[in-house]
Amino acid sequence: MARVEVSTNRPYHLVIFGASGFTGQFVAEEVARTASEVPGGSLKWAVAGRSRQKLEKVLEQAAGVLSKPELRTEVDILVADVGEPDSLAAMCKQAVIVLNCVGPYRFYGEPVVKACVENGAHHIDICGEPQFLEGMQFKYNSQAADSGVYVIGSCGFDSIPADMGVVFTRDQFMGTLTTVESFLTVSTGPDGGCIHDGTWQSAIYGFADGQKLLSLRRKFNHKPLPTVGSKLKRRGMLFFSNEIQQYTVPFMGSDPSVVKRSQRFMVEEHQASQVQYGAYAGVGGVVSVAKLIFAGMMFWLLVKFSFGRNLLIKYPELFTFGTFSKAGPSRKQMDGTSFQFTFCGEGYSEDQDPSKGNPNGKIRVLVQGPEPGYVATPIAMVQAALTMLNEPSSLPKKGGVYTPGAAFAKTTLIDRLNKHGIQFSVM
Ligand SMILES: NC(=O)c1ccc[n+]([C@@H]2O[C@H](COP(=O)([O-])OP(=O)(O)OC[C@H]3O[C@@H](n4cnc5c(N)ncnc54)[C@H](OP(=O)(O)O)[C@@H]3O)[C@@H](O)[C@H]2O)c1
């Protein structure tokens, strides 16, 4: 394939595709907020999607929220539809980076990745679906490398805090870090909180298609990564965690898959030693556990059949005790919500040989931030994009399909996140 030009000499540094979606509107707002932080206000950006009318509304709303009336007239609108390849190509030719917010990615994502790779635009998404993320790596990694295009997935709450959290923990540990377990807790204010239907649908189809993910992984034919120190023990399906003082379950999102891929990159490309990783999420007290068990059983029962999936999709509030909703959280709910990731790491101190004896060092790291889905996700996505624009020489040498940890380990992304409300610190 002929090399395509990846140039900063395009009309827009950033194009937000799917800016009319629930998450996309907040990504657009975050770009508008951050554009003024760029020296000289020189960031050029546009919103894109299939409905000009909806995109006009998004700009109108952002103009009101941020008191920037100029957004209504100064930000360009590009009309592009996933089902119309020419419109995607035209969009990609105008962008240095496409921020893709159109999901579920398993249905809509691939044509956008393909158009980016073929037309020389970098691609950043906020996907939390391992099958899509790993599938894109399988299919487009070498083409993206040939084209000099970076396709960086899972740059939202899934999975920047977890993936960069492991990078940060390793960098802060004095010696050889061998294992990390993360414990996620989310707190809501008096108005509660919820997650928008878009993520619910992505989760339903992801679980229903679990078998395809396993067969995709077999195609990679990966050798197991060498472990240093003893093997990290998996905890149970439900346990009381002393680390966060509440009942806890394995985290079902994309974090373990993303962190594992980052570790493989570091072992294979940088001859680093593997950090084994386990991800857990706090549930709370006994009542929350009972609700989770009931909701979990209904989910497993229904997700296998198309009739059941239709029910789950039709009534998200009912089947999740209000955790997911078609309306998404209100701004007030978002203001009252925050997350905390506690990372507990173990390893060998600098003066101990990692090939002998048991790990003798521990570290605890905290990554905390605002509401995960629609405040932290836009911050993480936009900072990932600005890092790409500003620090191209700190990215991996070749283009390709990367995780955040693989792409950004040598950049200042963590410093940037610290300055924008997602804080990384040693406890
Ligand atoms: N990583 C994270 O932590 C995180 C956080 C939040 C969301 N997400 C993910 O982000 C994705 C979007 O979630 P959401 O809640 O924002 O969903 P949503 O509100 O349903 O938004 C979907 C967007 O896709 C657009 N779209 C659908 N079909 C299209 C097509 N054929 N051509 C062009 N655009 C099309 C929609 O356009 P219209 O407006 O015209 O319908 C809309 O802009 C999901 O996959 C979700 O899991 C991830």
Automatic annotation (TrEMBL):
Gene3D superfamilies: NAD(P)-binding Rossmann-like Domain
This protein's record includes keyword Transmembrane helix: yes
Record's keyword annotation contains Transmembrane helix: yes
Lineage of the species this protein comes from: Eukaryota, Metazoa, Chordata, Craniata, Vertebrata
Highest taxon above the source species: Eukaryota
Keywords: Membrane, Transmembrane, Transmembrane helix
InterPro entries per record: NAD(P)-bd_dom_sf, Saccharopine_DH-like_oxidrdct, Sacchrp_dh_NADP-bd
Domain Saccharopine dehydrogenase NADP binding: 15-152
Record field: transmembrane: 277-303
GO cellular component, one term: lipid droplet
Biological processes, Gene Ontology terms: glycolipid biosynthetic process
Recorded family membership: Belongs to the saccharopine dehydrogenase family.
The protein, known as: Saccharopine dehydrogenase-like oxidoreductase
